[in-house]
Amino acid sequence: MDKTQIENVKIIDIPKIVDEHGRGNLAVIEKDTFPFQIKRVYYLYDVPSDAYRGGHAHKEVCELLIPLSGSFEVLLDDGKTKQKVMLNKPNRGLLIPTGVWRELDNFSSGAVCLVLASDVFDEDDYIRDYNAFIDSVN
């Protein structure tokens, strides 16, 4: 696996169209909004505020996390550096490349996290043991 640095994690601004009549906003994901084709879409919801999700890294899959509603935090870890990011705007997504450990927590009431993935589910793509993750990046 290529070594991936936390600096490759990016906040992606999703194009937003503001309605001139005050009827709300429209966010659009198409064309080159982010650097991969979507092969899988899923979302997390009704996550208790004291629970966490994630706790893994991917060998090949890239993901874009979008907070459709509410807020949550994402702990990112490349084996050398850790960083925590708060996601709370539905027109800003977090692009996580391969080889970055992620843990999602601190979900607000009603939070919904949409995940767009570069490939379909494959259990062999996951690194679910943190020590195995550290061994893979060293």
Q: Give, in order, the helices and strands.
A: EEEEEEEEEEEEH
Distance between termini?
A: 10 Å
Tally of separate helices: 1
Please report the first level of CATH classification, the CATH class: Mainly Beta
State the helicity in percent bands.
under 10%
Number of domains: 1
Instruction: Report the CATH topology name.
Output: Jelly Rolls
Q: What's the Cα radius of gyration?
A: 15 Å
**What is the count of β-strands?**
12
User: Order of strands across the widest beta sheet?
Assistant: 1-9-6-11-4
Mean pLDDT rating: 94
Q: What would you call the structural class?
A: mainly beta
* Outline: globular
Largest sheet: 5 strands, antiparallel
Level-2 CATH architecture:
Sandwich
Assess the beta-strand content as a share of residues. Answer: 35-45%
Oligomerization category of the chains in this entry: single chain
User: Could you name the ranges where pLDDT drops below 50 across 5 or more consecutive residues?
Assistant: none
CATH superfamily (homologous) name? Jelly Rolls
Explain the overall architecture.
The structure is a single chain. With 138 residues, this protein is mainly β. The chain has one helix at 130-137; strands at 10-13, 16-18, 25-27, 40-45, 53-58, 63-69, 72-77, 82-87, 92-96, 101-105, 112-117, 126-127. It has one domain (6-137): Jelly Rolls (Sandwich), CATH 2.60.120. The strands form 3 sheets. It has a 5-stranded antiparallel beta sheet with strand order 1-9-6-11-4, with no helix packed on it. Strand 2 and strand 3 (25-27) form a beta hairpin. The mean pLDDT is 94.
